[in-house]
Design a protein that fits this description.
43% of the residues are buried. The longest helix is centred in the first third of the chain and has 18 residues, at 2-19. The protein has a 9-stranded antiparallel β-sheet with strand order 3-2-1-19-18-17-16-15-14, with helices on both faces. It is built from 11 helices and 19 strands. It has 424 residues and is α+β, with helices and mostly antiparallel strands. 29% of the residues lie in helices and 19% in strands. It has 2 domains: 32-99 and 241-420, Beta-lactamase (3-Layer(aba) Sandwich), CATH 3.40.710.10; 104-238, DD-peptidase/beta-lactamase superfamily (Beta-lactamase, 3-Layer(aba) Sandwich). It has helices spanning 2-19, 39-54, 100-113, 155-159, 174-179, 193-202, 218-230, 234-243, 313-324, 337-343, 410-420, and strands spanning 60-67, 70-81, 86-87, 94-95, 134-138, 144-148, 267-270, 274-277, 283-285, 288-290, 310-311, 328-329, 332-333, 348-349, 355-357, 362-364, 376-380, 384-389, 394-399.
Length: 424
């Protein structure tokens, strides 16, 4: 009798577990051939990456490829830390830098869906310092002056990098950004996000908002907009509204001490020096500077919506799969399919004849390289990249930690080698 009761309880527990939704961490695996991919052709990716590692162009990588919501390829190659002879694990944490931008853009769209603002709203409605922007001009004698802009910067301008803002490397405004200690997201900062964006808002811009595409600190400004509208820090908002629902347990602005040993070591590659461990001091390139220890050192005040996150390939795959699924993953809905449709539609011209920009993503518009029209994605400063292909239900993520990378074409080759593995 007791045995029968135990059997029944076990059967009920098994049935209950079967109807419970899988955690977002449980992205399923499948044999490549069952997903229309070739194992033999995927091995070409192994060979190319191993060749780069053998030639000391990169220390190590983690690559992840999914099709139809299932993992077909997930490999760690090379070293997480060459000097310590530490092999690269699959769960290594990487500085994803500008791959933060799509996540922050999704956070903005979560608030947009709640009716908190319209994309046509001026940013100054929420951040008064952006009121009455001025454009930097240069006289024939070289002196600079400003003139009032024709219109206000809107939330849409920030999402599409048409705000007139720029980055520290810009020859016109870079020095001014540096003088005012404006954060750039890839170094230890002295100011908080709110302090930095308020200072940035008071500085001149390059052109009338909406005039053209200029890759910029626009998404850092969006991060502060999220804080103002939500009443939460950007970290709190991302954690509660995106990371926790998707079970992205290894994604942070600043790594907890318990996970710092999983952070992949950053390297530089210069033709004269080869592959070298990133120096202890920041690298300075004109008015732009960057370091590699910002995820765990410094004041830890600046939560950069445009470049500050660290993550794993698996965590980022969950975010990508949610987007590809039309805003949902394992029963958790973050966004409407109509929102993602708008985010991944062509919004502005970037100057690249084969690529346009949506609301947070670059979008392939012509097949000058292997892929599909409508494929979208982005990359990061330390040699990371992802792509999402709605036509093929295909996701690719490659993580490494290298800057500068010289003339290495590994990221581009990753996309080609991912696509050539599709056989049906």
């Amino acid at each position: 009798m007791l045995r029968r009761r135990n059997f029944m309880m076990l059967a009920l527990l098994t049935a209950a577990l079967m109807i419970l939704p899988l955690r977002a961490a449980d992205l399923p695996y499948a044999a490549p051939e069952k997903l229309g991919l070739s194992t033999e052709r995927l091995a070409r990716l192994d060979a190319v990456i191993n060749d780069y590692i053998a030639k000391e162009r990169v220390a190590g990588t983690v690559s992840l490829i999914l099709r139809n919501g299932k993992i077909a390829y997930y490999k760690a190659q090379g070293m997480k830390d060459r000097e310590k002879s530490a092999a690269m694990p699959k769960d290594a944490i990487f500085r994803i830098c500008s791959m933060t931008k799509p996540i922050t853009s999704a956070a903005v769209m979560l608030l947009y869906e709640e009716g908190r603002f319209m994309l046509s709203d001026p940013v100054s409605k929420f951040i008064p310092e952006f009121k009455n922007p001025k454009i930097l001009k240069k006289a024939p004698n070289g002196e600079t002056y400003t003139v009032p802009a024709d219109n206000e910067i809107t939330i849409r301008h920030l999402l599409t990098h048409t705000s007139g803002l720029t980055y520290h490397w810009n020859p016109e405004l870079g020095a001014l950004y540096q003088e005012n200690e404006i954060g750039n997201g890839v170094r230890k900062e002295t100011l908080s996000l709110s302090e930095s964006i308020k200072r940035l808002a008071r500085l001149p811009i390059l052109f009338n908002p909406g005039e053209r595409f200029e890759y910029s600190l626009s998404v850092d400004a969006l991060g502060y907009l999220v804080e103002v509208v939500s009443g939460m820090s950007l970290d709190e908002f991302l954690r509660s509204r995106i990371f926790k629902p998707l079970d992205m347990a290894d994604t942070y602005f600043f790594l907890p001490e318990s996970k710092q040993d999983r952070l992949a070591t950053a390297y530089t590659w210069y033709k004269e020096q080869g592959l070298k461990r990133f120096p202890d001091e920041p690298i300075v390139e004109g008015t732009f500077s960057y370091d590699a220890d910002y995820p765990y050192k410094g004041k830890k005040l600046y939560q950069s919506g445009g470049g500050g996150l660290c993550s794993t390939a698996m965590d980022y795959a969950k975010f990508c799969q949610m987007l590809l699924n039309g805003g949902t993953l394992n029963g958790v809905r973050l966004l409407s399919p109509k929102t993602i449709e708008m985010m991944t539609a062509e919004q502005v011209t970037t100057g690249d004849p084969a690529s346009e920009f949506g609301l947070g993503f670059g979008i392939q518009t012509k097949l000058t390289e292997m892929g599909s029209e409508g494929r979208y994605g982005w990359g990061g400063f330390y040699n990371t990249r992802f792509f999402i292909d709605p036509q093929e239900k295909y996701i690719g993520i490659l993580m490494s930690q290298l800057h500068p990378a010289g003339d290495m074409q590994m990221l581009d080759q990753f996309e080609v080698l991912s696509y050539q593995a599709i056989v049906e």
